[in-house]
């Protein structure tokens, strides 16, 4: 069965520091990959997605992610974190290009001033 | 453009009571999803509609959960009777038909069963 692992439950970074959130998936083929952000009391917002092609994907709010097939990973990165980035981040996969998604358990990002 | 609307935002009920959630998708979005998000976990898909037909309800606990999407627009999700473990946020999402169409999520309904 497909699964998504986000090994870090919480991450704390200082404002202006770089960020990397880890995501590993288990799936027999190359899935479709997504990163979402969820702020308190808000719905999920899509940051970026990978369907095919260039393995480095650019998203909104200055985020990017890199698909590494050999490591079954899709890590999210940002070069300089802003206080407003504090939120929960979810990695998700889909077997097809629909949004019938399997989510990881999330990583909560805290930003130190 | 209006987003996905859900109501109520919060609901507290006693176990064994029934409850219903409502979702109004973005206009023109044929595909609608209901997800359940338990505290500390990622969302889990309960059911997917394409217009008013069910595409996937494999993870819907059908002994107590039901969902409908009459006329292919609004949708309701019902729980009867509720259990303590149903306490969660219920998220609705919608998308245009076809592959690659981004799904947009509502703010969710937070259900507490006491």
Name some characteristics of this structure.
heterodimer, A: 113 residues, mainly beta, six-stranded mixed sheet, four-stranded antiparallel sheet, 12 strands, 0% helix, B: 114 residues, seven-stranded mixed sheet, globular
Task: Annotate the secondary structure layout.
The complex is a heterodimer of chains A (113) and B (114).
Chain A (H helix, E strand, L loop, with lengths): L2 E3 L4 E5 L4 E3 L2 E3 L5 E7 L5 E7 L5 E3 L5 E5 L4 E6 L8 E8 L7 E2 L3 E6 L1
Chain B lengths: L4 E3 L2 E4 L5 E6 L6 E7 L6 E7 L2 E4 L8 E4 L6 E5 L8 E8 L8 E2 L3 E5 L1
Parallel strand pairs in B: 2-11
Antiparallel strand pairs in B: 1-3, 3-8, 4-5, 4-9, 5-6, 7-8, 9-10, 9-11
Give a verbal description of the structure.
The complex is a heterodimer of chains A (113) and B (114). Chain A is 0% helix and 51% strand. Chain A is built from no helices and 12 strands. In chain A, strands 2, 5, 6, 10, 11 and 12 form a 6-stranded mixed sheet that branches. Chain A has a 4-stranded antiparallel sheet with strand order 3-9-8-7, with no helix packed on it. Chain A is globular, with a radius of gyration of 13 Å. Chain A starts with a strand and ends with a strand. Chain B has 114 residues and is mainly beta. In chain B, the strands form 2 sheets. In chain B, strands 2, 4, 5, 6, 9, 10 and 11 form a 7-stranded mixed sheet that branches. In chain B, strands 1-3-8-7 form a 4-stranded antiparallel sheet, with no helix packed on it. The A-B interface holds A 4, 41-46, 49, 51, 90, 92, 96-106 and B 3-4, 31, 33, 40-45, 48, 55-56, 91, 93, 95, 99-108.
